[in-house]
Amino acid sequence: MSEVKPLIGLKWEPKLPCLALESKTGSTSSKVAESGSLWSSKSELVDGLCLPPTDPKKVTKMMRKQIKDTTGSDWFDMPAPTMTPELKRDLQLLKLRHVIDPKQHYKRVVSSSKLGEKYFQVGTVIEPAQEFFQRLTKKNRSTTLADDLVADPNASQYRKVTSIVLFRKCLLYKDA
Questions:
Q1: Do residues 119 and 80 lie in contact, with contact meaning Cβ atoms separated by under 8 Å?
Q2: Is 1 helix (H, G, I), strand (E, B) or coil?
């Protein structure tokens, strides 16, 4: 009847959810729990700690996952940026820049090269001191290329003219 209660602070046990890996009936559900669970079995744990695998194939696979995705030392280990919708839109605009400004001719980009699509950097333009009075105000600055094209009056005028021309061509083909 006399229970020995440990003093507070002298004994600590982690409160983990109880996993029933072995059932009393010996059903197949225990096998499923062992293979599909996130917890390691007690035989794989050493002093309650998870150890790295001893299989060399598993070790090299884990090491490959830990290496950052970069272009290599020839390109100064430039990392691959995380693709956001804004970055995707800006890359599409750069691919279609010959359509946006028809008077400016650009060299064709080789589409077979996937490096240009995966590895790139986005920077900011620093204006020289001579352009202090001609610079854009904070109100007129845009964060993406798409915002810049929408705000550009020359590009919007070109879009209006081309849309009218295409609309008239469609009407002519419908009537014929």
A1: yes
A2: coil
Question: Which phi and psi angles does 73 have, rounded to 5°?
Answer: -70, -25
Burial 21-51, CB ≥16 within 10 A → b, else e: eeeeeeeeeeeebeeeeeeeeeeeeeeeeee
Three-class SS string for 122-144? CCCCCCCHHHCCCCCCCCCCCCC
Residue 162 neighbours by CB under 8 Å, 6+ apart: none
Q: How far apart are CA 118 and CA 129, in angstroms?
A: 34
Q: pTM of this prediction?
A: 0.52
For residue range 122-167, list pLDDT tens digits in order: 888 888 888 888 888 888 888 888 888 888 888 888 889 988 999 9
